[in-house]
Amino acid sequence: MAALLITEGTVVAPRRVAVADILVRDGKIARVGKVAAQAEAFSARGLLVLPGAIDAHVHLALPVAGTQSTDGWASGTRAAAAGGVTTVVDFTLGSPDVPLP
Question: From the first residue on, what is the mean pLDDT of each consecutive set of 10 residues in the chain (101 residues)?
């Protein structure tokens, strides 16, 4: 997989906000800061670069009263990703006598 360099974005991190470059290699962040790398470049000047959000309460393909929620796993996770959500925790229908794994 080719490397991607995101340049001059305003990176919002838990302890700091700063203008920086981000090198992505093999689908993972390899370096944040001033990066001089041979990579396909994308300018994020004037844009915020945020970490992916976590939605810990989603209802995907949830059966309720003989119906089912509109989004299944495929469409629901695509919609989440389009909105910047990279992790979802689906609602479960448990039973008091069934232990969680």
Answer: 90 93 92 87 95 90 80 92 92 74 64
Q: Which residues pair with 33 in a beta bridge?
A: 21
- Residue 74's contacts (CB-CB under 8 Å, 6 or more residues apart) are none
pLDDT for the residue 100: 66
Prediction pTM value: 0.62
Question: Are 9 and 44 within 8 A, CB to CB?
Answer: yes
Could you give the domains of the chain? 4-49 (2.30.40.10), 53-90 (no CATH)
